[in-house]
Amino acid sequence: MTVLYKANAARGAIWARLFAERAPDLPFRVWPDIGAAEEVRYLVAWQPPDRIMETFPNLEILFSVGAGVDQFDFSALPRSLPVVRMLEPGIAESMAEYVVLAVLGLHRDLVAFIDQQRREVWEEIQVRAPADRRVGVMGLGQLGQAALDRLKPFGFRLSGWNRSPRSIDGVACHAGAESLKAFLAEVDILVCLLPLTEATRGILDAGLFAALPAGAGLVNCGRGGHLVEADLIAALDSGQIGAAILDVADPEPLPSGHPFWQHPKILLTPHIASMTRPSQAVDFVLDTIARHRRGEPLPGLVDRDAGY
Question: 41, 223, 226, 263: which is the annotated catalytic residue?
Fold first, then answer.
């Protein structure tokens, strides 16, 4: 019974050391050193290999090395194969930190001041009180709820939107497509933490931007596929969107010469909002394997129909 890791090689070496310390009797290998393919029962991957069940006929669980699973081609994965997304707590903690950073940055006009510095301009911008700023989060799963919890002490007026109903103390919650426009109309800073599915691909488009109050800020740390890039450029240039902080793009990295690189109203970070912490991730994988061996329900089991 072997665990195989197929992702960043440097991180794979860290995982190997942690497995040797915490589960010395459980064979662990790092791709491409797969050993005996028929012995591989658990695969931890960002991108699984082609013909996965032909390659690993006895595979029992496919783990995503990250919180998302949109990088998987589910049409190539048998429905009988359980797919588990990473639920280690460090992912939510670091995402919440980033959302606070980005929201405060937009609240205090950081993107505008960075542009002023480039242009050697010393000019004040009027500061609004947090109680006068409405922050809305799209996606109220583990990451969205963690972000909202971290935002509460700052005094913003908080709201959230989700595909299905949620109830969160201190947050005005909206659910379903029919409530999206009403939610957007009351948001000054919009944070996208949605999973990327066929239903959410391209959701950050001209129509959505038009439903926001003029000058609203945008934070996207979901996936690059959520955003229609040309629509964002147009909204920024018209002033409908005041500024955007983007941690994700499509493709990644952005090519040289892409308009996002030099746009004065965009701040880019290289998909670092939330990163799996190896120590906690290894504990999650080991715990999930133990639950699987005991026949217990698996945490983070992906709903194939929902896409997450």
Answer: 223
